[in-house]
Amino acid sequence: AQSVTQLGSHVSVSEGALVLLRCNYSSSVPPYLFWYVQYPNQGLQLLLKYTTGATLVKGINGFEAEFKKSETSFHLTKPSAHMSDAAEYFCAVSDGATGNQFYFGTGTSLTVIP
Amino acid sequence: ETGVTQSPTHLIKTRGQQVTLRCSSQSGHNTVSWYQQALGQGPQFIFQYYREEENGRGNFPPRFSGLQFPNYSSELNVNALELDDSALYLCASSLVPVESYGYTFGSGTRLTVV
Fold this sequence. Notes:
With 114 residues, chain A is mainly beta. Chain A has no helices and twelve strands. The radius of gyration of chain A is 14 Å and the shape is globular.
């Protein structure tokens, strides 16, 4: 079975500071990994995904994530936080099995302090 | 291209009643999934439809059922509503294989059961 753990349900950073949101996964097969962002009263928007190939993945809005198999991690980073980055962030894993079920973490709420 | 649209945006129902939620997939997408997001939690997979057939199901009872229509739109039906069914219901569409493309999510239907 697949699962995702997001360490830190709330993260606060100053505007311009590094953003680091942690995600660890459990998967019995090579995983497919995703980061989604959710703004208040909205659905989830895909930030980036790892399927195969390069382990450093670049996404929208300056975010990137690195797949580290040895650490079973897929942490999300952004060099410089903007006020508009304040939102809920979800990490998800899929094993590509029938049904294409995505397993989501419980989310990390990012606050950006001016 | 149009995104995923869901209706209604908000709904209040009484325990024991039945509810139908609707979703129009993003143009060109041929698979649709439904997720339940309880307050403060990550989305939980309900089921997926592909070619008008249920293609996978999460840990939800049979009173949760769905349909996918030839135009790839979809419905989620919930019978005998319980208080714990109160949540944001998210519709997500994609091309297959979903793990390669990732889901496009709608903004959701907020269901409150009283």
